[in-house]
Amino acid sequence: MPTILASRQVGNLKGAPKKIRTFVSFNQQRITRCAVKNKANENVAPDQSFGLVARNAELFRALPLYAGGMGVASLLLNRALSGIAPVVDASSSQSRADVLVIVLSAVLLLTGLQWLSLKPRELAAVDLDGTTVNYVDPGLKPNATLLREFEWARNAMFKATRCKSLVLIYKGRTLFHYGYILRGRKPGEAMPGDICNQAMKDGRGNYLANLVLYPGRPEFTSFLPENTQGVVVQPVGDQGVLVAGTDTVRGFSRLDQAWLASLADKLEVSLGDVAMPQTGMGFGGKGSGGGAKAAGGGAGARR
């Protein structure tokens, strides 16, 4: 019986045959199609969970009303069928029980009416004040496999969730920025702040459901639109972080957050064996050549 390896295991196999390597790409496409299909059929609000009560909220709100009505109806039916005179007598145990049922039924009726009057406010999406970009670090463009991985992650989030901005910061560099960016901001200059660094340190994601209420908001509005409504921060190993922004308060459900965590794990595997291109005058390149010449000149002078 053939063994199917997880994506993390396949990514770590140097000499994996072509059949196994192509399985990962096919599996990614299958998962993406399933997620898009499930999201299209999802009719619950983004801030609701996927439990029984959330799916049948209207029914559960009306339960006290139904119970109170049944209590009053059963009281009248009992009086009609038992032949007891419809006179309230304090000395009668039946009359005292009827009074108690009437009080409890009235409480249930009022509770049901109150619950039905409390409707959750529908959270409308806002128009993000920014421009759209499709940025990838120029040093990674020769790596076609990694670019396909980035495109798959972008499509998986944008088509299956309410994500409007997706940024990957790895080893202090912005590897990609898809979707909305702060107006006038140059892509590729996003830097991790305290919240992102803490997520990388702890290895746990952070969900800022209503970004306006958080004091650490400037960390994200420095490269995302000012009116971004919510942000999910998901670590990519201990050296990177994946930031997803949305245009709706509580726009990411728990399923969306789990989906983003899976993408972060897959990107961590893909970036594990990729050498990050160096920038500026440092080790290698012309700077190293100049240093070598200077060292050679010094050696000649000593001779």
TrEMBL record:
Transmembrane segments: none
Coiled coil: none
Biological process according to GO: cytochrome b6f complex assembly
GO cellular component terms given for this protein: chloroplast
Pfam families per UniProt: CCB2_CCB4
Region (Disordered): 282-303
PANTHER family hit by this protein: PROTEIN COFACTOR ASSEMBLY OF COMPLEX C SUBUNIT B CCB4, CHLOROPLASTIC, PTHR34943
Name by which UniProt lists this protein: CCB4
